[in-house]
Amino acid sequence: SDALETFASTLKPGHVEILRGRVIAGLTGDDQRCAKTFGVSKQRVGQIEKQLRVKLADHFTRSFGTDGVKAMLRVWRTRPSPGLYAMLRPPFSTLPAKYKNAKAFHVGVHPERPDLDLLLALRNSRGGEILISVEPFTSALNPVSNELLTQLCSVCDVFSPNELEAVSMVGSGNPVELCERLAAFGAKIVCLRRGELGVVVLDTRISPNETWSVPAYLRDSETSDVTGCGNAFCGAFLASLLHGEGVAAAACWGSAAASVMAENAGVPTVPAGDAQTRNEVQKRCEALLVKTKRIK
To answer: Per-residue pLDDT averaged across 94-121, rounded?
Structure first.
């Protein structure tokens, strides 16, 4: 909901991960692994979770009143089950014809239970002539098996986790190490999104492999709401690849698009396709290109 995203926009990045993984998704997992995922002690994870629950309840009470909060809590208390997940995973056959004919898809997944059936159906559509981008929408709170990681990474063309999500799947390491570990599971292109630190992208489609570092486009006091920046990045990155550009240029387009998204609270009111927005994103992309470096 808008109220939930507004609340999340006021939190630190690590706290947002705890909000989404521990509070909203209702996931618990092993305390020690949660601590490693969120970068704090296991005691601190519990403390932050309790604080977030209190703050969230207060925020919703002010937004919707007591009765509205009670209604939402009844929905949130629905127990996770295969039936619930099936409702959230429409099969490929139900997609509109125009969707089935798309040249590219961007799919959000839970790393512990990705919809592999949908991803495989997409991969086999259009005779395999399709680009698939996969983005985890939360960190893994339980170990992800090598078999599942291989299935997930090998079915897509672009795998784009943020740094916390990557660490939760393959363990701690520097950005290049994280990209290489994910590539070892079959990912052709790995985009490691690092927020204000930019992005590191590894392309294994060429020999020798190339790894690039692209900075974030930052303007002082311009950040309003980072919600949706990951999707904006992934969409622009994928569109650039469709136009035949390399991963370095694609990452610059992604960072430029994400920076515009960050300067708006919620969805931008100006249409994404208008000339002014396109020109601004292109200007930012060109500024990032000159700062982009090949690091391996």
So the answer is: 91
Cβ-contact 131, 104 below 8 angstroms: yes
Q: Which amino acid is at 269?
A: T
Give the pLDDT confidence score for residue 23 in this predicted structure.
64
Handedness of CA 178, 180, 186, 192 (dihedral sign): positive
What pTM was estimated for this model as a whole?
A: 0.73
For the chain, give the number of residues: 296
Identify the band that residue 28 occupies on the pLDDT scale cut at 50, 70 and 90: very low
Strands, sheet with 131-136, edge to edge from the N-terminal-most edge strand: 104-109, 131-136, 158-159, 189-193, 199-203, 210-214, 293-294
* Distance between CA atoms of residues 273 and 54, nearest Å: 40
Q: For residue 208, is the peptide bond before it cis, meaning its omega torsion is within 30 degrees of 0? A: yes
Cα maximum dimension of the chain? 60
Judged by phi (left if over 0) then psi (alpha if -120 to 50, else beta), residue 178 lies in: alpha
Strand locations in 137-255 (E) = 158-159, 189-193, 199-203, 210-214
